[in-house]
Design brief:
This protein is an alpha+beta fold and about 150 residues long. Helix content is about 35%, strand content about 25%. The protein has a single domain, classed as 3-Layer(aba) Sandwich (Aminopeptidase). This is GNAT family N-acetyltransferase. Keywords: Acyltransferase, Transferase.
């Protein structure tokens, strides 16, 4: 069956929550955030003002999600989207489900007039890096990423 990728809807709250915990805890081995916080984030994305989520399905079963957050770039003097998450379950990696999920994000950004879509991935996630290269992404070399708590 062909992949279905669509914008998340309110009735997807439970299944997106499950996928997000699989991504946060299972894949990245981070501590589980409180479910209330996860639900609050999903609800924020459902209103599509600060971001948006997409869901990938196989025969009606959720197999992945992607999250875009909306912000601005001073350098471009324009709005940009940050693809904060692109996750598909193990059997769907390097398949058309993953590609379609990525393309849904890319096409949304083009249709909505974003100057660009940007993202980061773990330096250890070489599989994802290979995927992004196949999708014609340009790996940045001009900026160093920092964060603070």
């Amino acid at each position: 069956m062909a992949p279905i990728v669509r914008i998340a809807q309110p009735e997807d709250l439970t299944m997106i929550t499950e996928l997000m915990y699989e991504y946060i805890v299972g894949f990245y081995r981070n501590p589980a955030p409180p479910v209330e916080k996860v639900h609050q984030l999903i609800q924020t994305l459902l209103d599509r003002q600060l971001g948006i989520q997409f869901v990938a399905e196989d025969d009606g079963r959720p197999v992945g999600f992607a999250t875009l957050f909306f912000t601005f770039s001073t350098m471009k003097a324009d709005k940009i989207a940050v693809m904060n998450d692109l996750f598909v379950q193990e059997p769907y990696r390097d398949t058309e489900w993953e590609s379609e999920l990525f393309m849904a994000c890319k096409n949304y950004c083009l249709e909505q007039g974003f100057a660009n879509m940007t993202w980061i991935t773990s330096i250890h996630n070489t599989r994802a890096q290979s995927f992004f290269h196949r999708m014609d992404a340009i790996q940045g070399k001009e900026w160093v990423h920092f964060s603070i708590r």
